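Data card: per-record layout.
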Amino acid sequence: MVRELLSDKEKLARLRLSRTESIGDSVFWKLISAYGSAEEAIDRWRHSARKYEIRGEDAVFHEIDLIHKFGADFVFFEDEDYPKLLKQVSNPPPVLTFLGDRRKLSEFNKKNIVALIGARNSSVPANRFCEKLADDLGHNDVIIASGLAKGIDTYAHLGSIQTGTIAVLASGINVIYPKENAKLYAQIRENGIIFAEMPFDTSPQAHLFPKRNRIIAGVSVGVAVVEAAKQSGSLITARYALEYNREVFAVPGFPSDVRSEGGNALIKEGAIMVTSGDDILEHLFVREEKQKEINFLNESTERDLDESSDNVKSRLLNSLSTTAITVDELVSYVKLPPQQVLTVLMELELENRIERLPGQRVVLTPKM
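The structure for this 368-residue chain is written out next.
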């Protein structure tokens, strides 16, 4: 029997915060750290001088009803079934929606998960290699994660349907993209796990795919790029894997094929070259050792952020004005880690020294 760590009221409050457009994962966890619970955070905001448009209870109850009618459910960060490796990354999703048997969540958490990703316009040889690679890893007790996209993702799932596969969507749990993968979606729903971070009915949008990619990297002990161009979402996932202290693997390809440029570049930069499943199996970490490494990394990173918070505040305030700029532009200008900037921006927002605007923009709070 799964032990419930959050009350129903706290789960509702966490869904309200996580469904509020102006609150990202970084802000969410900063609020939990500051106030101890989502309930308390909402209560504080309700009585603060500055009003925040928190997602209403009725809207969240409506989504909960839709989720359950669809046959899906929620898994919260505090739940025992929440992906264990994803818990170790900075600012993980507070809650995921999932389709599949909840018992599989526990089963998959006890195994190594490897992400297989790559081009949507993948070559036939790459597709065949990916499907065989997924099958070989699956028969060695490895769960395969991917993004249900065309090309490599599709064959990663096809090769691991019988042994264990996880699909992560860049949409709501009920939105199948691309449509031609509807049959595959149904097979994974029946035999594997489908995750979505976004609310029910959310359509896939360009800015949601990097969010999806960070989850694919976060649940995995390693990420393997089978075929990818230099500028592709697969390389974004590989960068997340490096940030999370995961292994990065890449399958080499013919130099003149643009679909091989990304994988070949990763190998030049130190990724482990893969020509068979054995290349991945030989480099997989023991899960407990990997978790210790990730814990150590996150703890040291948090200490670094605490030690330099005041200096970072000054740099950010000096870089901002009453003219809005995006967070990405600010990160590029101050040349600091994105996570550090996001954390300190939250502190400045709580101090009412900056304002967050739609479109991930920030401005200095006008002086009265």
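Known properties of this structure: The chain is about 50% helix and 15% strand. The longest strand covers residues 112-118.

See the next section for split statistics.
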